[in-house]
Amino acid sequence: GDSVTQMEGPVTLSEEAFLTINCTYTATGYPSLFWYVQYPGEGLQLLLKATKADDKGSNKGFEATYRKETTSFHLEKGSVQVSDSAVYFCALTLNYGGSQGNLIFGKGTKLSVKP
Amino acid sequence: DAGITQSPRHKVTETGTPVTLRCHQTENHRYMYWYRQDPGHGLRLIHYSYGVKDTDKGEVSDGYSVSRSKTEDFLLTLESATSSQTSVYFCAISESKGGGKTGANVLTFGAGSRLTVL
User: Fold this and answer.
1) What confidence tens digit (pLDDT) does each residue in B62-90 have?
2) Whether residue A40 has a cis bond before it, omega within 30° of 0
């Protein structure tokens, strides 16, 4: 079935370090891909998205490129800050079919950034 | 969490008791969702609604029922709570189902309701 696999955490980095959180997916058809972020004690917020192959989503210094050939959507940031400490979720939605529009989430990766 | 309110935010109850969680939105969005979040599982869809009185099951619907009598309110009911239903429950809304020609479906989430079943 359709699924999302992301690297397990927790990930601990020093401030200004480079961040990569890996995400791969399995889907029938052509999904849209998302990264959501959950700050402590809060609900999830959309961080960025990409709707077709080779699209790059970007927001707040984070980037992810939709790679159809490797079925991946890795999240990157060049220089993390303490305020980036959160749980990051990779997700997909199918664009057609019975489950159209329903979000399928990965298990989440907790990021802790130390000053 | 603009436009979405979940209540209660925290609840402790005993096994076998009924529990109702409420999600209220002021955005007039057609679609509403209930997810549960558990360590090691991420978020899993329980039920969703695509309009007043129109609901459908998600991935983990057993033991849960929902109702939507008004556009703004989506209720999640545990008829007889069990310890396995201890979780954080999130409501979400979206304008459209997404997909097809309408583009990606972007959800807006509430702040969550933490439920503990003893």
Assistant:
1) 999 999 999 999 999 999 999 999 999 99
2) no
Burial of A95 (0-12, 13-18, 19+ CB in 10 A): buried
For the segment B33-64, what is each residue's pLDDT rounded down to a tens digit? 999 999 888 899 999 999 999 999 998 999 99
Where do we find the tokens 């309701």? B113
**DSSP track, A12-64:** EEETT--EEE-EEEE-SS--EEEEEEE-TTS-EEEEEEE-STT-EEEETTEEE
Query: Considering only CB atoms, which residues of chain A are within 8 Å of chain B?
Result: 32, 34, 41-46, 49, 51, 89, 93-96, 100-103, 105-108
Q: Quote the CA–CA distance of B49 and B23 in Å, as a whole number.
A: 12
- B99 touching A (Cβ < 8 Å): yes
User: Contact A105/B105, CB-based, under 8 Å?
Assistant: no
